[in-house]
């Protein structure tokens, strides 16, 4: 096998960052040399399909690096996979390490699989579940990552123990809808996992993302507030403060239900004498979002006082239900609304 220089380009969420760390580890152990993208002859892109702008970046990278071997993994829609193939770019499902062995002409497929698993031991991210069952109309995750699959709690605990032993102080549990976690063998839920991890010896903090408001339970909130090794922060995506837009997004909760969950978090703060930061995600300029709808999102921001917010300007994605709605709100208007919400966060 010819030794190559490689570069791993990661776009998107923490799950993709985790995958990027594992891929870097794998390639270095195989004898490949990490290098800047300019001098790499192998480029692996961990892609994101949430926004069209992210996909455009992948195609731009392919265009600017012609003549190099490029492999794309991560969240990719079928129609984009076909476009990659036309450009002689391979798509690799990271859950099938043997396919990467074929692409890199490595005969020892078991070694590739083993090294990819080993990479998890150096990543501060621990996936506890994969996929999504929610099918929000703007999102492709349920298509690209598949339906929800939770890992066994015993395997998760073993991974965390290894990270603690290796000196990791900050450990992030990952899942597309992490508060719906359910051990496939015992049926135990996220709050139980928190208690078991909290009881492990060592100096470390456990954080977790991302939550779906419909799945946030009283038990999870209490565990965050009560357990000292669970970070006092809950990421609770609102996406919009308008019930009309939430329905159009297929987000099965109302503004009132969301605020009730926030109220429970604040009550837990008082009960256990702690401060719990709340962070959120928002989609700006979803089709049909009027100024009145946007004002309701502004009111949510002013009411709750988020620590941080990830503000995403809507872009239509093929194969999602919202794609047929088009993109009627001008980019300039999305930018204005983005600035309004960003200023609220910055003035905290």
Describe the structure.
The chain has 348 residues and is α/β, with parallel strands linked by helices. It folds into 2 domains: 5-117, Rossmann fold (3-Layer(aba) Sandwich); 124-346, pyruvate-formate lyase- activating enzyme. Helices cover 41% and strands 16% of the residues. It has 13 helices and 13 strands. The strands form 4 sheets. The chain has a 5-stranded parallel β-sheet, with helices on both faces. Strands 6-9-10 form a 3-stranded parallel β-sheet, with helices on both faces. The longest helix is centred in the last third of the chain and has 18 residues, at 255-272. The N and C termini lie far apart (55 Å).
Sum up the structure in keywords.
2 domains; Rossmann fold; 3-stranded parallel β-sheet; pyruvate-formate lyase- activating enzyme; single chain; 348 residues; alpha/beta; 5-stranded parallel β-sheet
């Amino acid at each position: 096998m010819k030794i190559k220089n490689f570069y791993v380009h990661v776009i998107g969420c923490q799950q993709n960052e985790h995958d990027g760390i594992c891929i870097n580890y794998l390639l270095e152990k195989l004898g490949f040399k990490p290098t800047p993208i300019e001098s790499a002859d192998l480029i692996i892109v961990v892609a994101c399909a949430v926004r069209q702008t992210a996909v455009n970046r992948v195609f731009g990278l392919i265009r600017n690096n012609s003549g190099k071997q490029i492999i794309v993994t991560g969240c990719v829609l079928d129609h984009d996979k076909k476009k990659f193939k036309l450009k002689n770019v391979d798509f690799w499902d990271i859950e099938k390490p043997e396919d990467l062995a074929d692409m890199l002409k490595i005969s020892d497929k078991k070694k590739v699989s083993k090294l990819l698993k080993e990479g998890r031991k150096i990543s501060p991210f621990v996936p506890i579940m994969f996929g999504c069952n929610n099918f929000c109309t703007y999102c492709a995750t349920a298509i690209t990552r598949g339906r929800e699959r939770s890992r066994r709690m015993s395997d998760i605990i073993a991974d965390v123990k290894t990270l603690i032993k290796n000196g990791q102080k900050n450990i992030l549990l990952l899942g597309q809808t992490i508060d719906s976690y359910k051990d496939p063998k015992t049926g135990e839920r996220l709050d139980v996992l928190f208690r078991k991890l909290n009881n492990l010896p060592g100096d470390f903090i456990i954080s977790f993302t991302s939550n779906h408001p419909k799945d946030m339970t009283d038990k999870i909130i209490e565990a965050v507030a009560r357990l000292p090794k669970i970070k006092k922060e809950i990421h609770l995506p609102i996406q919009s403060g308008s019930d009309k837009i939430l329905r159009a997004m297929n987000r099965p909760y109302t503004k009132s239900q969301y605020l009730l969950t926030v109220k429970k978090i604040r009550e837990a703060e008082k009960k256990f004498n702690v401060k719990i930061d709340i962070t959120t995600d928002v989609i700006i300029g979803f089709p049909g979002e009027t100024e009145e709808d946007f004002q309701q999102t502004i009111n949510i921001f002013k009411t709750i006082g988020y620590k941080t917010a990830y503000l995403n300007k809507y872009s239509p994605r093929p194969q999602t239900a919202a794609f047929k709605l088009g993109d009627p709100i001008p980019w300039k208007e999305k930018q204005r609304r983005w600035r309004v919400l960003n200023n609220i966060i910055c003035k905290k």
